[in-house]
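Deliverable D5.2: sample structural annotation.
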Amino acid sequence: MPDRDAAEMIAVQGLTKVFGINPVLRGLDLSVAHGEFVTLLGPNGSGKSTLLRILGALSRPTSGSVRIGGWELPKEADFVRRQLGVVSHLPLLYDTLTAEENLYFFARLYDMPSEQRAERIRTVLERVGLWRRARDVVRTYSRGMLQRLAIARAILPDPAVLLLDEPYTGLDQDAAALLDDLLREVAVSGRTVLMTTHDLRRGYLLADRVAILSRGKIAFDQPTSAIDPGALPSLYADVTGAATVR
């Protein structure tokens, strides 16, 4: 049985992932405490999405140790999935169903008690600004609306851990501001969040810690309190060798 008193919600040691002869993750170590919000930065191809797919029990590591909530991946993936809300590059939605029908489907998958489903679905759809479009077929949604519905799906079961892979993709300014508010609420609610983003400023403002992934390893990891936000772009460029970004 997992140690429920362990300080770490996410514990990764020596993680490697190789595709064919191409190593993507190279002995990566990462620890995220209960209730901590960590922003993971890194250039395209650095392994961010690969790491989140492994943590989300969507991909198997080549080697290394991965535990979430004390459960081991991939051996105890079923237990891990019950704790997770995941937003990936794919919305994982059924475009021939309405938003409401999609969430009812996922509520059943999450074994949500039937008497709680209607209220919870309305709550999350209101929270992401989609309640007025709840009965519209998803194929009529814009890219930003799909992203908001994917976030509603992720938070529907009130998960202990949120894994967010570029959640701001496709969002306009109003929708991005709404997501900022939602993530701030999550950050003070005791849930654990690991988010990848290319938006350095937004990632810094939301997180307790910033980690930078470069060449398959965590090359930088500091609490935001120890980082000068004005110096973050140049720090990122130094660590990754990338051009200075916002």
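Annotation notes: The chain has eight helices and ten strands. Residues 1-5 have pLDDT under 50 and may be disordered.
The annotation will be released with the project's public dataset once the embargo ends.
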